[in-house]
């Protein structure tokens, strides 16, 4: 499902740089520009311009503890007899001699950087106007003391055109989402400028005045599908050039290993996005979008669904004698058994969706057996059945076995999805829903803690191929 409202909220609340940080950035940039303008730095300043994700309007909120970056270009007239490194070194001296900035200024190959500890970094890059020829812009490379041709305004205009083709800022929004995915997954390396170029390349002139990019999730799906198609046709690292400056090779930041990994990961995320987009069940779709973007996507809705299972279940029997004396789902299960469980109960959106590809060649039956213990590793009290009411405080040992009630061979491993529901678990911040390793062999211990109906599922994974071979039916744990 597209889940348009959920995507809108996700962008506003989680992905976009929040207004407080925007204000801090603007204030910092104004202060930096004033310092440069009122300093003894000799070049005549023509203008200041934002650059990078700030100028392209694809800047995103940093993950906790990480700074966000913003770029300022300072366009100046050339200085006679100055070399490339002079522009940077003397700009660096301006801030080194300033009490406010001297401890937080850094110097890199193409810029001077102000690093506000743990919050934001602002890169300041001198751009030399018409040093040799009119209508040319050059940046300074301090490492090799050379001037390099640049077209920052033209690149920004190229992206503005791509965004206009998609309409409703959908290109910018999809770019932000993929940058966020990169940052939270940390499974591939791709600088923002290169990722933005690669995505811009997937917007064609023929898309103008079509419905190709009708909304944000559709734009995301189209862009990553086209990008993946292009990557799969090219197993070896190709040259990706700046679309407005042929001699600038943006893909120089990659080697074959990084490119191959990027190609592999984009293919995986393309499949996950397709699955989430095409899923018709809302709860399942939210869960699959969370597999892509993490728990923050539609988080409140997912948590509420798990927290309020009792209200939802009991409401189905409103004005019937069934709910007489019943206060929650536990009471309802004790009264009418499995019929008490809502149809969506085993696919709650906060449950993590499997990250392993499903094997098409083999499918094995997986059964879950359970025994009750007073303490972990103590003597077994009795076997436990799914939906059997139990008291809190005891322990259960779950074991995954095949259709002959035997353990699986060592070529397989069992991952357990443990899901809690209802108010007691939510109040304790323990709804879980994640995957956990087996303790010993193909077994796992869990303590009975929170009143509610909870789920335990066993997923059988082939160790060699890392593929999903089989999955058990949910084992429902009822805690009184």
Which characteristics define this entry?
7-stranded mixed β-sheet; alpha+beta; 6-stranded mixed β-sheet; Beta Polymerase, domain 2; elongated; 14 helices; about 475 residues; 3 domains; Immunoglobulin-like; about 25% strand
What does this structure look like?
The chain has 480 residues and is α+β, with helices and mostly antiparallel strands. It has three domains: 136 residues, 2-Layer Sandwich (Beta Polymerase, domain 2), CATH 3.30.460.90; 121 residues; 134 residues, Immunoglobulin-like. 36% of the residues lie in helices and 23% in strands. The protein has 14 helices and 19 strands. Strands 1, 2, 3, 4, 5, 6 and 7 form a seven-stranded mixed beta sheet that branches. A hairpin with a 6-residue loop joins strand 10 and strand 11. Helix 6 packs across helix 8 and helix 8 packs across helix 9. The two termini are 36 Å apart. 33% of the residues are buried.
């Amino acid at each position: 499902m597209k889940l348009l409202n959920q995507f809108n909220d996700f962008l506003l609340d989680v992905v976009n740089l929040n207004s407080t940080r925007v204000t801090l950035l603007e204030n910092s940039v104004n202060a930096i520009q004033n310092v440069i303008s009122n300093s003894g730095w000799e070049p005549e300043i023509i203008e200041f311009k934002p650059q990078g994700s700030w100028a392209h309007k694809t800047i995103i909120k940093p993950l906790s503890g990480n700074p966000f970056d913003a770029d300022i270009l300072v366009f100046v007239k050339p200085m006679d007899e100055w070399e490339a490194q002079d522009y940077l070194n003397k700009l660096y001296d301006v801030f080194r001699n300033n009490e406010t900035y001297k401890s937080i200024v850094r110097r890199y190959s193409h810029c001077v950087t102000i690093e506000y500890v743990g919050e934001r970094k602002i890169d300041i890059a001198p751009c030399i106007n018409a040093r040799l020829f009119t209508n040319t812009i050059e940046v300074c490379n301090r490492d090799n003391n050379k001037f390099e041709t640049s077209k920052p305004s033209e690149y920004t205009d190229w992206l503005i055109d791509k965004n206009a083709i998609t309409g409703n800022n959908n290109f910018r929004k999809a770019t932000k989402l993929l940058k966020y995915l990169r940052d939270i997954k940390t499974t591939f390396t791709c600088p923002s400028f290169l990722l933005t170029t690669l995505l811009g390349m997937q917007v064609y002139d023929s898309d103008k005045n079509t419905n190709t990019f009708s909304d944000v999730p559709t734009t995301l799906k189209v862009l990553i599908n086209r990008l993946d198609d292009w990557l799969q046709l090219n197993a070896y690292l190709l040259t990706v050039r700046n679309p407005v400056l042929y001699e600038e090779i943006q893909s120089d930041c990659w080697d074959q290993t990084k490119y191959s990994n990027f190609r592999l990961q984009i293919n995986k995320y393309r499949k996950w996005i397709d699955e989430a987009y095409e899923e018709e069940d809302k709860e399942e779709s939210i869960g699959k979008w969370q597999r892509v973007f993490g728990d923050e996507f539609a988080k409140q809705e997912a948590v509420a669904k798990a927290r309020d299972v009792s209200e939802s279940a009991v409401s189905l029997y409103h004005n019937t004698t069934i709910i007489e004396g019943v206060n929650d789902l536990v009471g309802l299960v004790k009264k009418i058994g499995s019929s008490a469980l809502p149809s969506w109960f085993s696919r709650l959106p906060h449950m993590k969706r499997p990250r392993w590809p499903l094997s098409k060649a083999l499918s094995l039956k997986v059964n879950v057996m359970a025994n009750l213990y007073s303490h972990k590793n103590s003597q077994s009290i009795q076997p436990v059945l799914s939906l059997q009411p139990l008291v809190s405080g005891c322990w259960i040992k779950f074991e995954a076995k095949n259709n002959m009630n035997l353990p699986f061979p060592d070529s397989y491993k069992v991952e357990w999805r443990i899901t809690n529901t209802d108010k007691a678990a939510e109040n304790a911040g323990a709804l879980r829903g994640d995957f956990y390793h087996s303790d010993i062999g193909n077994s796992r211990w869990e303590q009975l803690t929170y009143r509610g109906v909870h789920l335990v599922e066993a997923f059988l994974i082939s160790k060699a191929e890392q593929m999903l071979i089989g999955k058990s039916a949910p084992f429902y744990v009822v805690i009184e």
